Amino acid sequence: MVYEGKQAATSRSSHPSPSTAVATRTKAPVSYVPSGSVERIPLRGVRKKIAEAMTRSKHTAAHFTYVEEVDMSEIVKMRSAAKEEAKARGIKLTFLPFIIKALIPALREFPYLNSSLDDENQEILLKGDFNIGIATDTDNGLMVPVIKTADRKSIWDLADEIETLSEKTRTGKVSVDDLKGGTFTITNAGSIGGVFATPVINHPEVAILGVNAIRKRPVVKGDQIAIADMMFLSLSVDHRVVDGADAARFMNRLVYFLSDPKRFVFA
What we know:
The protein has helices at residues 2-13, 18-25, 45-60, 73-81, 83-89, 96-109, 155-170, 244-259, 262-265, and strands at 63-71, 115-118, 123-126, 132-138, 141-143, 146-147, 184-188, 207-221, 224-238. By secondary structure, it is of the alpha+beta class. The longest helix has 16 residues, at 45-60. The radius of gyration is 25 Å and the shape is globular. It starts with a helix and ends with a helix.
């Protein structure tokens, strides 16, 4: 009997307890050892902050992306016609001011796109201001300066402020206040290229609009095939706050305004 008892004790001790097994499974992973020549760059500073923000957004917001295309031909013509005026004003006129102006009436109709979710208090915060963040590529990483009260500004005001904020951001002169208070963000990779993307929401906002390259393509207008300046729009929303159907309706309204700029320029 003593012998059997020892055997049983030995048998039990050869199997780790549940707590030991969990501890074994949750040990820190072994550092990755790549082969060949490698340069190790510490993840710190702005890049670390970006990594933390992107991870927090993806782990918190329930991302859903809706893609639509829009005929930008009329805005292309309007911008081209305004180039001389922009030059006289000393302003670089891009497509972003037109897109922001078109966004405002669409956001007014769909206020949940211009909101945030207070997770702690379980409240949706509908924003009365329209503060549009512009995701900006810099040597130090992606930063998002904010155009405050964009709804009160003209095309020229927006163009001037976009240029000023972009320059301050790229040269490291942007202030903390310039980066705060956004209610909706635009990320523009169109100047670089690409058909469309699935942007990550700038948490705690609930929506971000990806603006992509404008390219001439054959399209059907009526019963005719014509060449048009077409662009894809990529809208990522937090599905906890915005349903897919509302995201689609919002995009329909945005396309409505962008396809004929007279609808918002003179609104």
